[in-house]
Amino acid sequence: MSVTITLIDATLGAVVTDVSLKQLDDPTWGEIHTAFLEYGVLVFPGQHLSDDEQGEFALHFGAIEKLGPRQKKGVAPISNQKADGSVVRPDEEGYKLLRGNEGWHTDSTYMPLASKAAMLSALVVPPEGGETGFADMRAAYDELDDTLKEKLEPLSAYHSLYYSQEKAGYQHNTDHLYGFHDKGAPLRHVIKTHPETGRKSLYTGRHAYGIPGMDPAESDALLSTLLEEACQPPRLYRHAWEVGDLVVWDNRCVMHCACSYDTQYPRVLRGSRIAGEVATELAPTFEDERAAAFHPTTSNASRLAR
Q: Which residues form the TauD/TfdA-like domain (predicted)?
């Protein structure tokens, strides 16, 4: 089996054809992995994988991150459609999370162990809109001037899903959703060195806030400016979904976001998220005051100890 790799017209991304992800041999996986590290985002059109098949493909990248009780066989629904076929309402928790995902982010930076990679496949798509955008944080870093690179190198920022959802205007009334935990806010470097390629990237996103040692307003302004300027052409690719597509991306150097669509229509994607290696993706955690409202019986000490 020999794959065909066609570059996307951006600083990241490639379309991979002439391959069946249902039956990968070692040499073909080697080609895919090499392309994954080089291009950051890989698009596999028309794969039409089952739950089991996507879960098996995801395992090639590493251990599967557990996303909650709805996850089975290494996959979880990323969907606005409920079991009875209706779509979630604006006052429901799932709707708020889906809309929050329209901000640029990297998966699971708000957890102690951040995600290494992630993939989505399309089962149901709306008649228009609902694409997924990807932004190349390697190229964004490369574009920074040397003075700014030097300023950012020692900086870190806290990451919190409580923070990002609140900033997006969504108040949640439950802690039974992935990401709303009492483990504390991870503190992550603003500049990340990729553990496999050695390339540097911006590592911020909508979950990032509160650079230690910096005035909160100054921190917010800096992080917002970095994010806005990073997510610009030619560093962007927007994938228009077709049923059967699968897209995988490297969370260590790529940010992504959902694009808006008419939410009266169902949009059903199937996600798999690959856990990062402890040596490079585990971050120290510190108290997140917003979590106290969800976990009032959890002491500060126990939060900080996790």
A: 11-271
